[in-house]
Amino acid sequence: MNIKEERFLNKKGAYVIDFNNVDFITYTQNEDKPERWQMKFHMGAKEARYMTKSLDETITILENWASSKSMKNIFFNKEEIEYTNRRY
C-alpha cells in the first residue's frame, strides 16, 4: 500500500485515487483468502477497486479516507470491520 499525504492511494502501475473525490467506500472480506479485503471506492457514477493484503491495511485506508473528509477523530477497530457468517 502506498498512501501519500494521507490523501492519495497509489496502486502501482494502475491508478492514483484522491480520497477527497471518494463519496463512500464499500468493502468485503475475500472468501478464498480471508486475510485479504476487496475495497470499492465510489466516486460519482464511477468506482475503483483495490485488494488489501490485511485487515490492518483496510483500516488504515478507511481512516485516511475519513481524515481526508475532515473526520480526523474517526477510528475503526477490527470488531467493527470483521464479520462472521454474514447472511444477506
CATH topology: PH-domain like
Mean pLDDT: 88
The number of E-state strands comes to: 6
Helix proportion of residues, in percent?
Answer: 10-25%
Runs with pLDDT <50, length 5+? none
Instruction: Please provide the ordered H/E string of secondary-structure elements.
Output: EEEEEEHH
SSE-based structural type:
alpha+beta
Strand percentage lies at 25-35%
Discrete helix count: 2
Distance between the termini: 30 Å
Describe the global form: globular
Tell me the CATH superfamily: Pleckstrin-homology domain (PH domain)/Phosphotyrosine-binding domain (PTB)
Query: Which strand order does the major sheet show?
Result: 1-2-3
CATH class: Mainly Beta
Please tell me about this protein's structure.
The protein has a single domain (3-70), classed as PH-domain like, CATH 2.30.29. It starts with a strand and ends in a 7-residue tail after the last helix. The protein is globular. The strands form two sheets. It has a three-stranded antiparallel sheet with strand order 1-2-3, with no helix packed on it. It has a three-stranded antiparallel sheet with strand order 4-5-6. It contains two helices and six strands. It has 88 residues and is of the alpha+beta class.
